[in-house]
Amino acid sequence: PQKRTYRIASIPGDGIGVEVIEQTVKVLRTMEDLFGSFTLDIDMLDWSSDRYLEKGEYIPADAWPKLRASDAILFGAVGSPDVPDDISLWDLILPLRKKLNQYINLRPIRILPGVSSPLRSCTSSDLDWMIVRENSEGEYAGQGGTTHDDTAQTIATEVAIFTRLGIERTMRFAFDIARDRPRKKLTMVTKSNAQRHGMVLWDKIFYEVAKEYPDVETDKMLVDAMTVRMVLKPQTLDTIVATNLHGDILSDLAAALAGSIGVAASSNLDPTRQNPSMFEPIHGSAPDIAGQGIANPIGTFWSAAEMLRWLGEEGAADLLMKAMETVTASGTKTRDVGGTCNLAQVTEAVIAELEQLF
Ligand code: NAI
Ligand code: MG
């Protein structure tokens, strides 16, 4: 059979993003050698805050055609103490998500073997969630403005945008995901008591789409009560669908409840497959630990596994998950999850496990 080739654009970014991507590429190279059935043509792109400081831009203006032609994007993290965070977000990550029509952000959260939850009695079967975050509009639509800047009368508006198109496609995606999981259960989150236009539309479309999925059990939560339920009754949740901002916040909470933000993965998907999808850990550049070699690479390994799955390499994705979970179970862990290893040691253990399991 012919060897499959995937063109991967990799953007390590800043801080620990660079460290975790370096390790993930080693893992991917091992998988390529073991399987022999696919090649990863990885293009490393230096779109970092250093580049911004030097050239005034993150993404070169002529980069889009080549990026669009890639099969997937593997992203680290962006953010530097020397660049305002709204610039790094709006000049790098958000243009990627928006221009490449990655309208779904999918975040699987589980307690991995050997990792303990800060919740005293929470076991791995109590917390196994799939968070579907709307990724193109809502509170991150970018509409608004500032008037009378630097005066005592400054006015700033931040307009949240909710469209029927954006909500409906997110709901369909979430119901499909919920239907494919054993519990067939979808919880929808809004704040439609206080925000009575966009969020009410969100609720309305949820119930409309629900009619097409009679086999999926549904329920609705207000976001504030949802934080309480996630902590006190994690076992009552399965698939969760939320707006851009709510999904962002709830998934950080979910990651912390599953043991660490360092283990959490995400996929920015264009479900139409007309553009490459982008895979990244949910954490940021972590300037507080950058350069120390102690960042947890597991969230990025998991993201790479999701990338392989999206590309159709299910076998490779499953093997990587299994190797990762065997390693966390064995106690080879970074400090954020209670271990003493550095990231290179975790990577070496995962590579050894891949070779063992293959
Ligand atoms: P952060 O996720 O970078 O760090 C939060 C805390 O978690 C820190 O104490 C950090 O040390 C720890 N942490 C994060 N990832 C870890 C890992 N893999 N292993 C061990 N510990 C880990 O969030 P923060 O501090 O709010 O933001 C730092 C910078 O990252 C900012 O510039 C922010 O804008 C940016 N950021 C970028 C994101 C992205 O690229 N997608 C997402 C979130 C933040
Ligand atoms: Mg976030």
Task: Describe the protein's architecture and organization.
The chain starts with a strand and ends with a helix. Helix 1 (16-35) packs across helix 9 (298-310), helix 7 runs parallel beside helix 8 (244-257) and helix 10 crosses helix 11. The protein has helices spanning 16-35, 49-55, 64-68, 85-99, 164-180, 198-210, 223-232, 244-257, 298-310, 314-330, 343-357, and strands at 4-13, 38-44, 72-77, 104-110, 128-134, 138-147, 155-161, 185-190, 217-222, 239-242, 265-269, 277-281. It has two domains: 1-102 and 296-358, Isopropylmalate Dehydrogenase; 117-258, Isopropylmalate Dehydrogenase, CATH 3.40.718.10. The mean pLDDT is 96. With 358 residues, the protein is an alpha/beta fold. 46% of the residues are buried. The longest helix is centred in the N-terminal third of the chain and has 20 residues, at 16-35. The strands form two sheets. It has a ten-stranded mixed sheet with strand order 2-1-3-12-11-4-5-10-8-9, sandwiched between helices. Strands 6-7 form a two-stranded antiparallel ribbon. It binds 1,4-dihydronicotinamide adenine dinucleotide (NAI) and magnesium ion.
